Amino acid sequence: MVLDLPFIWAAIIAFAVLAYVILDGFDLGVGILFPFFKEKHDRDVMMNSVAPVWDGNETWLVLGGGGLMAVFPLAYATILPALYMPLILMLLGLIFRGVAFEYRWRTRRGEFLWDIAFAGGSMVAAFTQGVALGALVQGIPAEDRAYAGGWWDWLTPFSIATGLALVIGYALLGATWLVMKTSGDLAARARGYALKAGVGTLAAMGVFSLWTPFLEPLYFERWFGWPTLIFSLLVPLLVLGCFTLLVHGLSTKHDSRPFLAALGLFVLGFAGIGISFYPYIVPASLTIWQAAAPDESLSFLLVGALVLVPVILAYTAYAYWVFRGKVDPEEGYH
């Protein structure tokens, strides 16, 4: 049996991207919500809730980006020039946020500056990720195996809208994470923000479900052709089911159910993007087979992935198991 190595690698990278979005999404969401909690104690607890896991969450970003460069070099060489500005801003946001974790606890006089760095870095990273996604969904023109667009092609009403939508979605993940990990007044306020962000996320998913099919004929055929029409009819029902579970979990003060429901919304949205894209890795320009490296390289790299990915999964599961349960309000991050 001959393995379809480009397809296998596309699945691995898609999994890495999804893992990054749902894991780093909630700690970016905590940063996005930071300005809405004015008390120092609340901010300390919020930061402590993600401090043990945030850097491990970003492992998946490295795996996805590095894997794209090694396995689909033509796609990497096409996407990167098209998205230089949002990707550079994203990395700067992640850097400022990461440094804030260390320096915020070392100063009192300058603590407000690191609060701004943490919140601002989280917002910038989330927004630019959404902008990059929107630009990719719109399609990136390629000619003669190279990017054929301009410097500002990524900046459109659609990409700005997707950036704002992802900020709202990450805020939902962050709020439901705080519901699960904190207690008392902080958790109660997080429930209120989770409900508002949940309504905003549901509205955004509805808007983009109507908007996206008209960006490319490929998307229209996928959403309204057979047999993918089944998915188009099924997904809205699943989304409403997750939203109902979210609202019910918040109203009954369940700890983990709202977070799981929010993750469900993201998984469904990601699946919708995957169905729209396939078999393209750069929509309407390059398929996964056209962009893939030689099979010899894919085979060699797959051996490493079969070792590395389970190790990352095991480490991630262990970290979350060790730091399970509610955050102790009296403990600090050192």
UniProtKB/TrEMBL annotation:
This is Cytochrome d ubiquinol oxidase subunit II. Keywords: Cell membrane, Membrane, Transmembrane, Transmembrane helix. It holds the Pfam family Cyt_bd_oxida_II. It is found in: Cell membrane. The keyword Lipid metabolism does not apply. Belongs to the cytochrome ubiquinol oxidase subunit 2 family. It is a multi-pass membrane protein. The chain crosses the membrane at residues 6-37, 82-100, 112-137, 157-180, 192-211, 223-247, 259-281, 301-323. Coiled coil: none annotated. It comes from Shinella curvata. PANTHER family: CYTOCHROME BD2 SUBUNIT II.
